[in-house]
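Entry under discussion copied across for reference:
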Amino acid sequence: MEGYRIAKQDNRIYSMGLTVVDGGIHVCVAAQGERCDLLLYHSGEETEYVRLHFSEEAKRGDVWNMTVLGDDFSGLEYCFEIDGKVFADPYGRQFTGREIWGDLSAADRPMRTPVVIEDFDWDGDKPLKIPYEEMILYRAHVRGFTKHSTSRTKDKGTFRAMIEKIPYLKELGVTSLELLPVNEFPELMMPEHVDGSPYAVDKPTGKLNYWGYTPGYYFAPKASYSSGNGRHPVSEFKNLVKTFHQAGMEVIIELYFTGKENPAFVLDAVRFWAEEFHVDGIHLVGFAPNDLIGRDPYLSGTKLFSTSWMGVPGGHEKHLAEYNDGFLVDMRRALKGDEDEMNHLIFRSRRNPADFGVINYMANTNGFTLMDMVSYDTKHNEANGEGNQDGNSYNYSWNCGVEGHTRRKKIVELRRKQIRNAALMLFLSQGTPLLLAGDEFGNSKDGNNNSYCQDNEVSWLNWNLLKTNRDIYEFTKAVIAFRKSHPVFHMAGEPKIMDYLSCGRPDVSYHGVKAWRPEFENFRRQIGIMYCGEYGKKPDGTADDSFFVAYNMHWEPHEFDLPNLPKKQKWYIVFNTDDKEFNGMYQEKPGDGEDVEKKGGMPVMETRQFEVPPRTIVVFVGK
């Protein structure tokens, strides 16, 4: 104990965990028991250097307090012991002993927290607060995004490698990055114990929890996601956030809770990531006290995602967002031509409530990728070792005629067409579109829709597909740019289906094969949606163009009558997902001359009728 002494306890209330105070540190931990000790170690040493006992006088309820005075705490790590049981600080901001991903030898190794964590210069950084309607959200796994040998990054599978991909994300059009859990979690899966069983053992199952949806340490970035020897996860994650902000992109993280955590602890964790790491938002996964978090005034400027915010009032800023599979289910069913889906299509494409945002996606982590959605009718999770009984059986997918990989030209072309259709359905809808990492270049998991334990090429993005499926990437990038350029597709509020500006047309209107006559019978698989440009103001204050989107999800062609435009305007085709020659898209200004259409220019409509081919979406612009 030489060089360190316990200060006389005062009556101040300290934050949980470790706090730096004048002349030393203060530690505060909640633990039930009779005797609690603070254990200090030199870094890398197995034997404790100093053991300090918490006094009963410094205990309030189950919370133990101690102020330790000393001149130098560098190179020291700490943990606690309660009645002979050693445990790590639940509020620890960094942990040693878990620097190597999937290290079996670390399963029984105690986790300790460095007393001194390096400072970080934020250089004036702050959250970007991009409005929900302006966001293009991209969801990725830190390890899987760059771990593949084709990623062309230096420190593969780390925070630093994510930074190396910023130019790629910027070119794609991403504004906001969502990361699967980046807090410290045990990736080595242990068996679940049954009380009273004499056969229970504390040995790893051999599986890895790749995603991170498991109880963990909620105040520390994951050490094995940092580069080199994993010693600087805090500064590396902060640098990731800062660098993304400098590039104009937000960073949103996921935090998984089981519902067994103390609500005050959960609130502390959410506040901590917003304050300490400058993250722009937090996606609450599992079971969290949403009412408490959603009403917290400290978080009123932080984006918060959850399955539902029912009963939680929105604040003066629109910071809450609903994040669930509703859009995915309805739009996938419409895409594959299910009966009675046109009402759902127009509802999902328009939905954008005033009090909270809506996150829309066609594919997400716990389900098929976009490519697998058009390649498989059923899940293929045999590699998970659970007899294909795990994962969601309701995928609302269609394999286009062949299960899995095929070289049949017609099947391949139909699948690509359906992917183009899915991209338009997603990015032409109000709300916030989310793109699953790799979907922009046809990433496949070979039909595995629950790759939670697949730390291999099933989950790692193969960047060679960016060349193989360049057409998918170029179409996705073009649709994102198109959405950004036209505010009618990302309004701040939900369209009212009314002409409240008295400009002669509603903001949004619905049409059948005959203009102004929508048809919603259960057997209908086609609908037209018109967007009036007067309701979409561009940054310079000018009105947007008007658009007509013809959806034909039927397996038969349908002829649409196009609505009339103001005098001297004509309809031009911007996207036609059936056109393989130009990858379903046309240039607004391809060049001069009479052969504009041959150069990929927008075809002009000389009549008001257009036959939309089977399973095709056509987007018209009025000019």
Notes: Residues 4-114 form a domain with the Immunoglobulin-like fold (CATH 2.60.40.10). DSSP finds twelve helices and 27 strands in the chain. The mean pLDDT is 94.
